[in-house]
Amino acid sequence: MAVADSTSRPDQSFIEGLARSESARLLRAKLGHRWPETTDELDVITRYALLPAGKLLRPLLALHAAEAVGGNPADLLVAALGLEYLHAATLVHDDIIDGDAVRRGRPSVPAAYGVPNAIVVGDHLIFGAFESIVEEPWVASPARVIAAVGELAEAGRDLCRGQTLESQLVGDIEAGARWYPEMIRRKTGTLFRTACHIGATLGGGNADAISGLAAYGEHIGIAFQIRDDLLSFVATPEQTGKSATSDLTNGRPTLPLILAYQAAGDADRAELCAVLARRGAGPRDLAWLRDLVANTGAVAGAYRQMAGHVERAVTELAVLSPSPSVTVLTGIARWTTSQNL
Amino acid sequence: MAVADSTSRPDQSFIEGLARSESARLLRAKLGHRWPETTDELDVITRYALLPAGKLLRPLLALHAAEAVGGNPADLLVAALGLEYLHAATLVHDDIIDGDAVRRGRPSVPAAYGVPNAIVVGDHLIFGAFESIVEEPWVASPARVIAAVGELAEAGRDLCRGQTLESQLVGDIEAGARWYPEMIRRKTGTLFRTACHIGATLGGGNADAISGLAAYGEHIGIAFQIRDDLLSFVATPEQTGKSATSDLTNGRPTLPLILAYQAAGDADRAELCAVLARRGAGPRDLAWLRDLVANTGAVAGAYRQMAGHVERAVTELAVLSPSPSVTVLTGIARWTTSQNL
Known about the structure:
Two copies of one chain form a homodimer.
Chain A: H1 14-19, H2 22-34, H3 41-50, H4 57-68, H5 77-98, E1 102-103, E2 106-107, H6 109-113, H7 115-134, H8 142-168, H9 173-202, H10 207-234, H11 237-240, H12 246-249, H13 255-263, H14 266-278, H15 283-295, H16 298-316, H17 324-336
Antiparallel strand pairs in A: 1-2
Helix pairs in contact in A: 2-5, 3-7, 4-5, 4-9, 4-17, 5-7, 5-8, 5-9, 7-8, 8-9, 9-10, 9-13, 10-16, 13-15, 13-16, 16-17
């Protein structure tokens, strides 16, 4: 669907271009080198969780944040990949928790290798993330390396808090309305924030630059999550590579549903609560919900919130001197709202 | 049962005494302070996984290793507790993988709070472990703090490799015979090794002392695992606080079974394989296996292997100057073989 969009409309292939950039190429090469084909079962499954790589957005954010403060991104490849490991770990463990059998258009790790292996591989990726940060040669002063470890650990704890909060909101759209911003800040904002924070820290940034880039990351992380929540209602599983009904089946009050609920009449509210409570939403429920979120203005409302976070993200970049990396970071933010949602 | 024991027999209440030592008291106080009663669900479950504390052997090893190289254990309390967090994380995730409903004589975390919460709480504990190592004020030079982080990350990956290896050995006693030493080195030796390694590193030890203490830790970890495997056949669930048939139900070829298999005749071998393959061992199977491991000399054989690791552990301590902490470390090793097995 088309949504009124007051922001500029950059090239929609921006992210595809980013995925072909030199930084992305270096990251992919390093990732493939690190996780070669093997017969070791743990490494086979870990490789499956990581490859073929997605957009590598979090590592790319780290590299561009580093470059934006004057660092050399080529020195930071391993540390940046640590953010991809942590991201992949959360996906693997989330897929167990949500019972999701499809991820990136193919069987999820628990579906392909079973829950026990998925638990262990998620753990393996978490440990790998920390190992990546401290691997020698250190890319910054020891104090900065330690700060990056602390940031990663705090991010991980925040992700856990977000996951617990999400579980607590299951089936409860009113609690969802109250806690959704906090939940997505922790669940998605945190890792984007941390990618930028760690990149800026290891790149040698000063406190203001680190703090500005971290805030930028948090806002685009939140924007990405809202976009993801919107996609369940405006895109096909083929486009998103994952189940359109996972959030519904898991009783999740996502932003489009929350806004639809707030705008809907009593009958629609009751039906919306019933669908969430049922935990077995099918194609008819989804079709009804798609109409509801469109007709109540919930899609447009969610889009506006997303665009607001994009603007705030871009504003945070003002602390930095103009540079090619700042342009890329701005482009990543703008891309969120540039898609044919 | 009584087992011939060529080693000296120190006071069997040694570990109980250790649990009442000043170091243990400080650790317990810090642990309780860190994880107060709360209504936050994630912290409630994390606290449940940690408290009431067990023997705190891994943190105690770290403190005594630090003291043995001239460090001040009081400075290392938080970092040492990180080892308990990692240990607790492995227990929580293992209990999901093994389907174990009882741990330390009460419902395991997945039994009490469900699998999704148990996954998240295990992750939370892993992140908490890293956070503990880098928390300010740093207890050693930044380079030593980073080394400790790297050691913890590598230990975590090794634990995952051990877990995967254990899964691969399920139901296969011949593969078990081949891989059991490697598996328990990774699954249990690693964390004891790492506790001593990190304690000695943060305590300011030189390379020889760190390496000797790490080797000591690995050997006592292996000895403890053999002891644990033995207890399933010679102690009651009331004594061990956990299911006596978990290993059997999970088809695990533990050392007593491997040695019994190697010593048994064809009929007993076939029956042993059948029990493992059945994955539903009951009281009668357990009684039969208890007789088999006793009559084939497997209990005595496992005991001898355990005692061998204890001796090697003690030998590794020769690199250190005599001190009260070295005496404690020696006592921990000797305690393993001093029990009424």
